Amino acid sequence: MSSMASFPELRLRRLRSSEPLRRLVRETRVTPADLIYPLFVVPGRGVRERVTSMPGVMRFSVDQLPAEVKEIHDLGIAGVILFGIPAAKDATGTGAYADDGIVQQALRTIRDAAPDLVRIADVCLCEYTDHGHCGIFDGVHVSNDSTLPLLAASSVSLARAGADVIAPSDMMDGRVRAIRTALDAEGFEGTPILSYAAKFASGFYGPFRDAAESTPVSGDRRGYQMDPANGREALREIAADVEEGADMIMVKPAMPYLDVIAPARESFDLPLFAYQVSGEFSMLQAAIERGWVDAARVIPESLISIRRAGADRIITYFAKDFAKSFAGGSAG
Predict the structure, then answer these.
(1) How much is the pTM?
(2) Active-site residue flag, 252
(3) CATH class for domain 29-250?
(4) The dihedral sign for the CA sequence 248, 193, 131, 85
């Protein structure tokens, strides 16, 4: 840093004295085009049900998606990421790779209703297995290598249904290479992979597991998701996925792991996503509902912190709220 004058010549408050000046010199900006909105899709017709642990978030049946995605598109939000709850579950998560699976149906519907909206398909087995784990489970351990073909099959099925981006979130070793190989073999060499490269075994996922009905029946996911204490290991995980062919990378959760996002940005040139997860969202919503914090300030501030750390794009349940406020001129 070059030498600076000191007070009284140096007065840093000069550039803070009015909103136009603050806006002029603002270093970090967030727009709706930087955001991805998660959608939960359920069986049935006419379903629009609230997720009780995530105020303002809904689960939709496929027939309800056209109106929802048109609104999302009109708000200027970049895209959606899809999570499905199947009508039936089994030990191998068959619904994840069925051509008529719930997310496959949703992708086709969204493609017709809002063709310019980017469609990201989450790839994992936890929502589809009767045991709630992200792979083949023997009652004690999740088998890494036996899970890879199922993730690959799911990715191909989702690409065939119209996914613009495949986003594996399972944290199995070697999944990116397995998925890339399968996609290329089926003619989807142009479909990019957004890898949940550094996904931590976080306590902040609780509300999502309610919404996606994906809580493990026994055990937990610490045997495959990352230890929250390990920042250096996160960079190794990202490097491994990049080497295997990931086109984009993700850190999840976001705000508790800003210290991981920042070195990831410095170390890798790929587009970097961060997921502001359900627990982050629900904590802020609870404080907002009680009047403890001001939504108009804390929602943009939370997103700016993630962008300032280095994320290019943010997956967030606040996307619609932020976009509506942005359109009204009070965000940013």
Answers:
(1) 0.95
(2) yes
(3) alpha beta
(4) positive
